[in-house]
Amino acid sequence: MTPAEKHAQVLKSTAKRLGFDFCGIAKAEFLELEAPRLEEWLNRNYQGKMSYLANHFEKRLDPTKLVEGAKTVVSLIYNYFPEKQLPHQPEDIKLAKYAYGADYHDVIRAKLTEFLEILGEEVGDINGRSFVDSAPVMERQWAQRAGLGWTGKNSLLLNREMGSFFFLAELIIDLEATPDTPLAKDYCGTCTACIDACPTDAIVQPEVIDASKCISYLTIELKEAIPNEFAGRMENWVFGCDICQDVCPWNRFSRPHQETAFQPNAELSHFTNREWVEMTEETFKRVFDKSAVKRTKFSGIKRNVDVLILKKPSS
């Protein structure tokens, strides 16, 4: 076994030990094919008000600009599919599944810190950084290169064994490891379920999202008034949106996660529209104390609730 093969084995065994569902390895190199795609996406202003996505263009494409001497990008999958969805009827206010429990940034970041510590013990001194949706890393593209899946028409990474209800995380390290083989096939075929189901027409073409139309963007990233054209088309999603995943045939393979931190807050489990409408800032802080929902702040959630209930733009 070569050193690179041994390192790959250590990476995958460590990932399994820490509860990651899949671990894929790719050579750290410039994402040449992605450069024109990213540039065109930005030029079309599909990022909406997320101006930060236009920053660090080179870093997004070249991992060696994030970690000096980087040789390997390790992509990791961590399941968040719940055993039970929060109960709701079509008229009920809904929350994206990934936000049911504790903030995934905190949960996974702790695991990645431990991952790097274990690597140091197993293979000696290495230089590396961990990422979980927190830096200019094109995580889906790296995961695809690492053989973990393919890009669906909704732009999400799809995995044949578990669909798409999972988080992606990365390690960029200066350790050489044998790379995995990317999938050579797109398994979406002629299916257009996600495109057909999107109520705001955010999927402008296969694999391309106009984020400024996406319900997740409107309820989380947009800090100003929700445009009038979307006020009546949000299908009661107050934070995030699962529509394009819920209709995806590959998510019939989703299985419940084993992460206790992702279990929903007991109080949240019994929220009705009345609780959402009458929620005070004190209740918001208590219920969402460790949740990703805190990103919107109380004012953001109240804006979203008002839009959903009144079906008119925020002011």
UniProtKB/TrEMBL annotation:
Claim: Cytoplasm is one of the keywords in the record: yes
InterPro entries membership: 4Fe4S_Fe-S-bd (IPR017896), 4Fe4S_Fe_S_CS (IPR017900), QueG (IPR004453), QueG_DUF1730 (IPR013542)
Textual note on the cofactor: Binds 2 [4Fe-4S] clusters per monomer.
Cofactor(s) essential for the protein: cob(II)alamin; [4Fe-4S] cluster
Gene3D superfamilies reported for this sequence: 3.30.70.20
Catalytic activity: epoxyqueuosine(34) in tRNA + AH2 = queuosine(34) in tRNA + A + H2O
SUPFAM superfamilies according to UniProt: 4Fe-4S ferredoxins
Record-listed E.C. numbers: 1.17.99.6
Quaternary structure and interacting proteins, as annotated: Monomer.
Role, per record: Catalyzes the conversion of epoxyqueuosine (oQ) to queuosine (Q), which is a hypermodified base found in the wobble positions of tRNA(Asp), tRNA(Asn), tRNA(His) and tRNA(Tyr).
Protein name from the UniProt record: Epoxyqueuosine reductase
